[in-house]
Amino acid sequence: MARTAGVSRAAVSKVIRDAYGVSPEMRSRVEAAIERLGYRPSVAARAIRGPSFTIGFELHEIENPALNRILSGAVAEIAPTDYQLIVAPAVAGGEGHRAIDALVDLRADGLVVVAPHAASDWLEKLASRMPVVLLSRHDRSENYDIVTGDDVAGARLAMHHLISLGHHRIAHLTRGEETTTREGTPPAVRLEVYLDEMTQRGLARHIKVARAATPGDARRATSDLLASANPPSAIFAMNDDLAMEALHVAQERGLSASDLSIVGYDNVRLAGHRAISLTTIDQSGDDLGRWAVRLLLERIDGRTQVKRETTQPSLIVRNSTDHPRSEQH
Amino acid sequence: MARTAGVSRAAVSKVIRDAYGVSPEMRSRVEAAIERLGYRPSVAARAIRGPSFTIGFELHEIENPALNRILSGAVAEIAPTDYQLIVAPAVAGGEGHRAIDALVDLRADGLVVVAPHAASDWLEKLASRMPVVLLSRHDRSENYDIVTGDDVAGARLAMHHLISLGHHRIAHLTRGEETTTREGTPPAVRLEVYLDEMTQRGLARHIKVARAATPGDARRATSDLLASANPPSAIFAMNDDLAMEALHVAQERGLSASDLSIVGYDNVRLAGHRAISLTTIDQSGDDLGRWAVRLLLERIDGRTQVKRETTQPSLIVRNSTDHPRSEQH
């Protein structure tokens, strides 16, 4: 097919993944060849190079234990197939384009993408050329599949649990602004549900959002919350990583769950450790990983219509939450 | 170069990575071409295909938090370079050949290999054909570099700490037989040091080795130790993952550190959590990852003589260890 177009394989690859540095003339030659040969682009891509029997997995924050659960599920799902999983860790905070490009250049047959910061139109273009499953956002996609937990339901479970225990002064501990400004990301959805619940319940005056740019900052953010006027009696943390840091501060100060209740999100393995005993939302991270691989293999096998899979979260009540010692309205 | 040999690229690739299914005739044609063109094999491999600017990282147990530290270091070291890290998770307990083959097929320019079960001669052949750094064993290699922590020093630090606190009945908690039978792996070295220290100190009669095939089995293994005749007052666990499970059991039974002291290995992030507060050995996992990438890039740049880097471990004393309440000889 590269021969038909009269251009190099590298150029065809660039056009297919819409990389920079492709002249309009080269693009039209390649696209004409794709057209002439009657290939759909994604099929054309594989026709040029043959299947590699690898699935690319782009992810951020490789040290986030919640991602470990997702990866474990993906590894388990792929094990009995002929495919090998290849993970490209992206630089924290970036758009993940470089890691994704590397996976494309390595001829992965399809991509599972976590990149919460990748632009939707960039992903649409990529996905029009090869099978893609997005694992991080509630997008309305045309070309790629979506696998997510039901973050609205999960965040409501967390908030209802704290409110039903009698908490009113509930703070939300989340990551930096950049994680909550893009619509549809789990942090953005969980923050929105927090604000909505607090407002609906007439608790708007108790709204406090603390941010930690890195998990390491979460201790300082928690200390700041506790030092503020009218400090919270409960914290709904965006994930277990943040929640466990908040718990560290609480324990350091000798605060029990009735002084400061903490709810996390993800149910990472150590959340169930007796010393941690963190109340949290389990969104079945393993299933997210399994579904991502399953949908991607379907796409590699030829499916083109969009599918969405959502895992149902459940509340796991442990010792980090209790009735508040005293609650002032 | 494939053209010179009169064989396909795939065949050259197979010969270079010593894959199955290569006829002797094909092998000699390819090797003759390599010879004729005066290439060293590793250079020949890249000459055929050009650099991909990717580094492959094969690892087991993607959910092991100790590996997260190593990966974080590797990601940080590679970030300012033109290279992208690609991780191939291997199926637990396997030799990792499949994951390594996938990285070779994907044209990685070099490999960091954790595979503790891969045969040395298999690795030597691989490393004679492309840059390889082994990260898991104290091998005497001829073609690949070695990066390890000093497991002898680290295990002695752990044992000396427990003995100096007054413990005699010290048990060792480690993984399944397959992890300690191959000479030079960290679990094998740590077990050997444990046995040596116990014997040297005249404590041979207190030797107890408990095994957990998976981290999930560690709770049962700990319970069995505590239910045994003359139960241990201290456990030296092969890694923090196992140590934290042992700590779970101790806390469940209301045992304090003076009832059962526990030392881990790795200093994973949560070992320092106030609720866990695990005494452990820090072997600078981040530095292991950094060194692996650094040495591999040197090899990709042309170095061929073997280098070994060893990180120096240190003891981190926290609340999980104390003087024993009573020690009977």
From TrEMBL, chains A, B:
<keyword id="KW-0805">Transcription regulation</keyword>
<keyword id="KW-0238">DNA-binding</keyword>
<dbReference type="InterPro" id="IPR010982">
    <property type="entry name" value="Lambda_DNA-bd_dom_sf"/>
</dbReference>
<dbReference type="Pfam" id="PF13377">
    <property type="entry name" value="Peripla_BP_3"/>
</dbReference>
<dbReference type="Pfam" id="PF00356">
    <property type="entry name" value="LacI"/>
</dbReference>
<dbReference type="GO" id="GO:0003677">
    <property type="term" value="F:DNA binding"/>
</dbReference>
<protein>
    <submittedName>
        <fullName>LacI family DNA-binding transcriptional regulator</fullName>
    </submittedName>
</protein>
<dbReference type="InterPro" id="IPR000843">
    <property type="entry name" value="HTH_LacI"/>
</dbReference>
<feature type="region of interest" description="Disordered">
    <location>
        <begin position="308"/>
        <end position="329"/>
    </location>
</feature>
<dbReference type="InterPro" id="IPR028082">
    <property type="entry name" value="Peripla_BP_I"/>
</dbReference>
<feature type="domain" description="HTH lacI-type">
    <location>
        <begin position="1"/>
        <end position="50"/>
    </location>
</feature>
<keyword id="KW-0804">Transcription</keyword>
<feature type="compositionally biased region" description="Basic and acidic residues">
    <location>
        <begin position="320"/>
        <end position="329"/>
    </location>
</feature>
<dbReference type="InterPro" id="IPR046335">
    <property type="entry name" value="LacI/GalR-like_sensor"/>
</dbReference>
